[in-house]
């Protein structure tokens, strides 16, 4: 029996997203969390890498785009922090395990547990059910959404950052390693918004110029009342169309909301924009989903 039903496919096509329960077992979720705890325990963070991650327009340019650490992270495992976790001298002012916003962007390539989940039969089955012929993995992230300080992710479309010609070739898989609820910062979507195109892109600037990235186009405003919550049980996955508008609120609860997420692209007859911040490298070309 297919993990993804025909009804799920229809909902994904109509709404731009769909929640599927039971992609991972509870034990698999716990193993991924335990492995990440080990990675964080061993993390050595150079001073210049203490980059704060934010989705606000100006801060994105300043903290992500300006930082070579971010723009060269596509084929590496690197660490991105929440605001206010370092003191004036660069020391942690919160426990190390609670300091991170995310780890990215190549867990799928270099961490065996994450690689196995990314290429699992269920994930490959989802791609095949959606008719993908040559899906490749673009990037992967572990997102912490720390209790009390996990920052808001403002409304956005993934294709702003992961642009293809034609559009409609990118999909995110967002796997809840703990229950994701309205209280701890689950995703919210505007159903059907994947049909409205994109209004802006984040692009690399000319070599030798700063910032390293910039936005072209304009940022849309959205009617808050149109957003629908998409809570997910531990082990469930949300499939996210590259152009659907989505956001998540701050996590003001006492519960974390750990997630493993990655993006895939149908490579058949698709042009990956050379202006995207993320580029395949000699060390890590975008790997095929259908191989391990």
TrEMBL record:
Cofactors required: Fe cation
Any one GO molecular function term: dioxygenase activity
Keyword Repeat set for record: no
Signal peptide: none
SUPFAM superfamilies referenced in this protein's UniProt entry, alphabetically: Clavaminate synthase-like
Coiled coil, from the record: none
Alphabetized UniProt keyword annotations: Dioxygenase, Iron, Metal-binding, Oxidoreductase
Pfam families (UniProt xref): PhyH
Protein family according to the UniProt entry: Belongs to the PhyH family. PHYHD1 subfamily.
Known role: 2-oxoglutarate(2OG)-dependent dioxygenase that catalyzes the conversion of 2-oxoglutarate to succinate and CO(2) in an iron-dependent manner. However, does not couple 2OG turnover to the hydroxylation of acyl-coenzyme A derivatives, implying that it is not directly involved in phytanoyl coenzyme-A metabolism. Does not show detectable activity towards fatty acid CoA thioesters.
Protein name from the UniProt record: Phytanoyl-CoA dioxygenase domain-containing protein 1
